[in-house]
Specification:
36% helix; alpha/beta; single chain; 9 strands; seven-stranded mixed sheet
Length: 318
């Protein structure tokens, strides 16, 4: 890679082809087996041994450098301030559109990072649990904007991240059901002082409006030490979403408890038309207005092609 090349000039990111990025694995060992990799893969996503070796092992190596440097800076600052040391979790955000493969990336990172020596505690939460319950969204007229920034209980999410960063234990996160498409009442996931926490969600890099009076306005990404944005062209994302919808029509939608049970008997043509309508009305609008504008805020961008394979990596310069 020639950082003096015209496409690299004035770019806050260093751009790597897949081949260039793969070489940065160096001697990072493969710690996942084929069976594990298959279990980490989401529906219609692509994750095989080669993808882990060429994309995620170099990323794991890079993250080990970032985590080590951040921890050393943290302890140096604590000594400077004369404050007793405590555990400070390293928080990684994973963002991107619906159907882009965020869950796969988050899970494979969790699996790889948890195998570092000496076996750090790595937890994973999704921001789905911090959506308002459907009853609240319906009351506020936001059901068609589920996943938009305004559909999240932001104060609760910020409080959760603040408690995690402060080392409090344990911290509870609400649990979301993709089957019922709603928050599960009185059910919580406990996060107990992880070494590393991965936070996955479509809008985790949102900033919000800046106040005219200069007062501090916290946002979710304030608590991140590193962030990854999974990227793909809009037409590709739309095709992936439709394909996933058709698969769910033949599987999960047949469960009578499913929020989308009414779609289970649609024909291929009807299901495709329904999926495209949902994509245009909700997911594309959210992508264009809220998600894509946050891409330049990520530390690292993974650009996927139509076959779900990462073709290019962009790393923010220091």
């Amino acid at each position: 890679m020639d950082i003096r090349a015209p496409e690299q000039q004035y770019n806050p990111y260093r751009i790597f082809s897949r081949e260039q990025w793969a070489r940065l694995r160096d001697d990072m060992p493969m710690t996942l087996e084929a069976g594990e990799i298959a279990r980490l893969r989401s529906m219609h996503d692509r994750l095989d041994l080669k993808e882990v070796e060429e994309i995620y092992l170099p990323l794991s190596r890079l993250l080990s450098i970032y985590v080590d440097a951040t921890q050393r800076l943290y302890f140096a600052q604590r000594r400077f301030l004369g404050i007793q040391d405590r555990k400070m979790p390293y928080i990684i955000g994973v963002a991107g559109s619906v159907a882009v493969g965020k869950s796969t990336t988050a899970r494979v990172l969790q699996a790889l990072l948890a195998r570092w020596s000496p076996r750090p505690k790595v937890d994973l939460v999704t921001t789905d649990g911090f959506l308002f319950p459907n009853a609240v969204l319906e009351r506020q007229g936001l059901m068609q904007k589920k996943g938009f920034p305004e559909s999240y209980d932001l104060p609760t999410l910020l409080s959760f991240l603040s408690d995690i960063k402060a080392g409090r234990r344990p911290v509870r996160a609400p649990v979301y059901s993709h089957l019922t498409y709603d928050i599960i009442p009185n059910e919580w996931a406990e996060i107990d002082r992880p070494d590393i926490l991965i936070v996955e969600g479509v809008n985790v890099l949102q900033t919000g409006r800046l106040p005219r009076d200069g007062k501090a306005v916290p946002v979710v990404s304030d608590f991140f030490d590193f962030s990854v944005y999974i990227d793909a062209e809009e037409q590709v994302l739309r095709d992936w979403y439709v394909r996933r919808f058709l698969t769910l029509r033949d599987t999960a939608f047949h469960d009578p408890r499913s929020y989308f049970h009414r779609y289970a008997l649609l024909s291929d043509e009807e299901a495709t038309a329904t999926a495209l309508a949902i994509w245009e009305r909700t997911n594309l609008a959210n992508l264009e207005d809220n998600i894509l504008p946050t891409r330049p805020r990520a530390t690292l961008i993974l650009k996927k092609g139509a076959d779900h394979v990462v073709e290019q990596v962009a790393l923010r310069r220091l």
